[in-house]
Amino acid sequence: MRTTHSYAVTDNSYHGLTIIWRQYSEFTFHMKKGWNLISLPYAPANYAISSIFPDYLLAYEYKNSVCLEATALKTGKGYWIKVPSDADYVMEGKKIDNAPSNLPPGWHLIGPNAGINLENAERIFRYKNGLYIEVDSLLPGLGYWSLGSDQANSLK
Fold first, then answer.
1. pLDDT along the chain (156 residues), means of 10
2. 113 domain-assigned
3. I want to staple 60 with a disulfide (CB 3.0 to 4.6 A). Which of 33, 77, 80, 125 is the partner?
4. Domain range enclosing 55
């Protein structure tokens, strides 16, 4: 990947010029064969799953207590993505700025950049090697099951 830090513009005429500078970051997903719980660490130019994971087999999102097939991703949400083999997938995108919001009661698939006030999500689980592990911090690129505050308090 080529990085450009400056441009030289030389023109003696009176033409209007517009330079749009976008700084993109790169992220590598280290996917295992089968199901992976992921989220977008950055906002990509193209949200289609096939643009980031060209050989993916199936993808699901969790919405209103139901798993639904997905073909496009959104930032802040978690997704189950099934891939045919162990592989690394590289994506580029720009930083996501989300204002914190409360996590409604119930289960949610979230990403670290969901803009969620995690104080309302007292139980957060990561999927690793076929097991769910309770965590207290979130890593970019991974998806998490999160339990909203009303149910979380009743499980204590």
1. 60 68 85 96 95 98 94 94 98 80 83 71 87 90 85 43
2. yes
3. 80
4. 25-154
